[in-house]
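Incident review: delayed structure delivery

Summary: a single-chain prediction request sat in the queue longer than the usual turnaround. Root cause was a stuck worker, restarted by the on-call engineer. No data loss occurred. The affected request and its eventual output are reproduced below so the record is complete for anyone auditing the incident later.

Affected input:
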Amino acid sequence: MNNYASPFEITNHMLELVASIMKKIGKLDNYKNLNKMPILRRNNRILSIHSSLAIEDNSLSYKKVEDIINGKLVLGNQKEIQEVKNAYKAYGMMKKVDPYSIEDLKKIHGIMTFLTVEESGEFRTGNEGVFDGDKCIHMCPQPEMINSLMKQLFYWMIENKDKIHPLILSSIFHYEFVFIHPFSDGNGRTARLWQNILLSHWENVFEYVSIESLIREYQEEYYEAISHCNVKGNSTEFIEFMLKMIDKVLDRLVESTSTNESCISPYVRRLLDVMDKDIAMSSRELMEKLALKSRISFRDNYLNPAIENGLIKMTNPDKPTSKNQTYYKV
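Output delivered after worker restart:
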């Protein structure tokens, strides 16, 4: 029998935020706009990784994080560089794990902390505390309690996933996970990613929403909310904080998709309209479909802008001028 209970209360402010978030998800037009913007999605993923690591004092700049992810040589602290590589791989697993599986949680932690943490992918065996300078502000549960507490937390989530709104449930998990502090290191990074995993299995758009970037902007308030909840013995304040972060980041995403959509030229729209997803076509075939005669016009107005915006790709990118080159819609 599960005796676990996560104390919280549903407030009017929570309900208002949930309603606002749902409205903004609707504005994304079933993610059609976002699906046309692979560069925006990739940039948001890089922003999530950079922000979450920066919260944990990783000093690498956004540009260096981007370069590492793009496979470029970067000079810097090797542990911090490894953390970026690990996070990129872990974020790529978001839709491949079961958000209600402890074993998958350990697997993600193992990926996130590969070569950087001794107890990677395993619950901690030592005592841990959260410190503000020399002052201990939270003494974490003893290591012998971790297995039981985590099993109870996941069982509680499974029991309540159809009763409590996912936006609220995922925020409760985030707080309770940080409170339990099940790993020796990497708890914050894992908690933030796992909330995204819970949300992305509910609504696909959250696979590319950088909630972490807002948490970083409001980092002091983030830690204050956790600390206040620890004192009060319930997660209400933290839930409201996380809903506020999600609401704000969706504001930015709606604005970004609108801006990017408006930047796509009518020429590129015509090109995309005549292409079928995952069916490669040659320049000649595309020009015939578009009823174009000028190769220069096709290249400058249609093909190159679509490639630069990540909307279509070459089947043979290593030989861009190959006579056998074909293109497919992303």
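Verification: The longest strand covers residues 135-139.
Action items: add queue-age alerting; document worker restart procedure.
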